[in-house]
Structures are given as C-alpha cells and as structure tokens.
From TrEMBL:
Keyword Zinc listed: yes
InterPro entries: ADH-like_C, ADH-like_N, ADH_Zn_CS, ER, GroES-like_sf, NAD(P)-bd_dom_sf
Protein name: Zinc-binding dehydrogenase
Cofactors that this protein relies on: Zn(2+)
Family the entry assigns: Belongs to the zinc-containing alcohol dehydrogenase family.
Domain Enoyl reductase (ER) residues, every copy: 2-354
Species this protein is from: Amycolatopsis acidiphila
Single GO molecular function: oxidoreductase activity
Top-rank taxon, per record: Bacteria
Keywords (A to Z) from UniProt: Metal-binding, Oxidoreductase, Zinc
Length: 356
C-alpha cells in the first residue's frame, strides 16, 4: 500500500508505495482509510516532540471502511464505515471499569502498540503512530478502536470525529460540563477550539467568547455561534463584572492557561485541552488556588467515551447543530501531504484532510 513515512524527526513526509502490513489478528480489523486529518499533534510528533520514535507512519484522525475482520473481532461487519479512535478501550483496566475509557491503560503502551500492525517498508520495520497510522491506504487496528458511522456522512467530515471534534466538543460537554446560561471563553480557534465553541453553544452557554489571533478563524467562531471573537491583545470585559463561568484553553501554552485562569470568576472552571510541552510550567500561588475556588480540569480526548460520543456527535451533525464542513479548510491527496502540512500550518487554516 501507499503511506506517508516519517523516516526521522523533522524530515518531510516521504511517500512510499511498497508499504506492507499484516492481516488482522484476533480482535482486530483491517480498515481502508478514505480520509485522514492533519492534526497539530501529527506535526508535533513528526518533529520528534512527545518522544516519538522513528521511522513511523503518523496520522490518528481517520475514517474509512472495514475490509477484513480477524477472529473474535465482535459484531463489526465488512463494508461498515468507521471512524478510528486512538484510545481503543480494553474494557477491563482500572479506568475503563470506572467509565473513563479515554484514559484506558489496559492496552500496550504507545511504543509497543506501534509494533502492532507489523508495518514494513521493504524489510525495514516502521512504527504505527498512535496505534493508528492513518496517513496510509490501510490500517490494522483493534476492533475496539473503530466506531461505526452512517453512510451519508462524508469521510472527509467523519475523520474529524476521530480527534478534533470529540476533543473540543467533549471539553465543553464532558470535561467542563457547561450548563445552560453559563458564560464560556474559548482560547484558540483551530479545529479543537472551534469544536469547543460549538460544544459550548450546544450545551446552552449564554455568551460564548472566542479568542484567536487570526481574523478568518474569529469569523468562523462567530458563524458557529460565538457571541463575540477577539484578538489575544484585545480587552475582553468580564461577564457580569466577575469573569467567565468556564474557560477552555485550546492552545496549550502556560501563558494561555494562566490567561484562562485569570479570565474565570471565583468558583469557575478552567479546562486545559491544548497539548502543551512537558517543560512549559504554569504557576499559581497556593493562596489563589485556595482562595479563588477555581477548578483546573485536564481534558484528554475531551473526556469522551468514543462509543457513546461518536453516535452523539453524528446526531448533532444530522440535526444541524454541529457543523463539520466549517472545520475543513482543504482536502488534498496523500501524495501531497507535505503541501497539506504547510497549508495546515497557515494562519487561516482550520483542518486540512488527506485522502489516501
Ligand atoms: C494528543 C495530544 C498529545 C498526546 C497524544 C494525544 N491529542 C490529540 O491529538
Ligand atoms: Zn489529534
Ligand atoms: Zn482499559
């Protein structure tokens, strides 16, 4: 098959046409990938951030159709359209049995899982990035890592349900648990931030305010229901004179997390969904942690149980309350993935999809 291989950190993606992967084993399925999103995390991983080892096939936001099923793979059928999850729940670990499947610890850790599909270019083994490797024509993944989607949802939009949309909508609905009438600040309007804006609107947030340096993204936030959108340097009046009930940081830098903290009222919630750096420290005084009574909430995969979240998001899309087309800036063939990355990094882009 064809795939985009990252041979070493910081190297451009290399299109290889002689990539092989094994047949699906017990509890696994083979998926033909129809669309994959270029998530910021893929760009970070390709640069060696988060300790990503190479060679590796990246891509974790993907949708396609099941074309082969291994033994004991459950109910799924050949021909079923699916979106991939990059945290397939084991169903048995400490976290899964408590309903926190998004932080499942039961499967092998990333480095081990990456060996899972036995990807090779010639005789050279290549890792399966994030256990998915969707920058490829096919993927072998656990059956627990594919969620059915309907036939009328285009693959280029469905793929977004694999990362950006559950991450952003889930930050509002699951992590922040935004209540009707609450005021919500969303910092950063990429695909995750614009999904958080939509999640806050879906939850009934009364005043959703978006912040982004890029005018085009601010315009999209307004189209998606934000009451106002501002550049980072703008002064934003605190709602009710006291601050926001909720702030969602979809950037992942100490400065934006601290800004979100300062923007919420006493007793408010700050949700950190942006994937930041391990050495980027944010500081709070012990006094303010106690005195402000704010809740600092981490949000991994939007605290989403994907088996429940994907069908819910599909229904929100069907009823017109979740706009997926607004999140797609471009669709590019996989063999032009380096152009897709450049486009994704352009200031006005939201999400660029590749079609393998
Ligand atoms: C990522 C964030 C960094 C750790 C792995 C998951 N989220 C999605 O892109
Ligand atoms: Zn992602
Ligand atoms: Zn588990």
């Amino acid at each position: 098959m064809r795939a985009a291989v990252t041979w070493e950190p910081n190297a451009p993606f290399s299109i290889e046409d002689d990539v092989v992967l094994r047949r699906p084993g017990a509890g696994e399925v083979l998926v033909r990938i129809h669309a994959a999103g270029v998530c910021q995390t893929d760009i970070s991983l390709s640069r060696g951030h988060f300790g990503q080892a190479t060679p590796v096939i990246l891509g974790h936001e993907g949708a396609g159709e099941v074309v082969e099923i291994g033994p004991e793979a459950g109910e799924i059928e050949v021909g079923q359209r699916v979106v991939l999850s990059w945290v397939p729940p084991c169903g048995r670990c400490y976290f899964c049995v408590r309903g926190q499947t998004f932080i499942c610890s039961g499967r092998k850790r990333a480095g081990e899982l990456e060996a899972g599909a036995d990807l090779r270019v010639g005789d050279r083994p290549v890792r399966q990035g994030m256990g998915t490797a969707t920058f490829a024509q096919h993927a072998v993944v656990p059956a627990a890592g594919v969620i059915p989607i309907p036939e009328d949802l285009p693959f280029e939009q469905a793929a977004l349900l694999g990362c950006a949309v559950p991450t952003g909508v889930g930050a509002a609905l699951n992590s922040a648990r935004v209540q009707p009438g609450e005021t919500v600040l969303v910092v950063g309007c990429g695909a995750v931030g614009l999904s958080a804006v939509q999640g806050a609107v879906i939850a009934g947030g009364s005043t959703v305010v978006a912040i982004d340096p890029q005018p085009g993204r601010r315009k999209r936030a307004l189209e998606l229901g934000a009451a106002s959108a501002h550049a980072p340097e703008d002064h934003v009046a605190p709602p009710g004179g006291v601050g926001f009930d909720v702030a969602i940081d979809a950037v992942g830098r100490s400065a934006t997390v601290r800004g979100a903290w300062d923007a919420v009222r006493r007793g408010g919630r700050v949700v950190v969904v942006g994937a930041g750096k391990a050495d980027d420290l944010v500081s709070f005084s012990v006094l303010e942690l106690f005195h402000e009574e704010k809740r600092l909430v981490g949000s991994f995969y939007g605290s989403s149980d994907m088996r429940f979240e994907v069908p819910r998001l599909v229904e929100l899309w069907r009823s017109g309350r979740l706009d997926l087309t607004a999140l797609v800036s471009d669709v590019v063939p996989l063999d032009r993935i380096n152009e897709a990355v450049d486009r994704q990094l352009a200031a006005d882009a939201v999400r660029v999809m590749v079609t393998p």
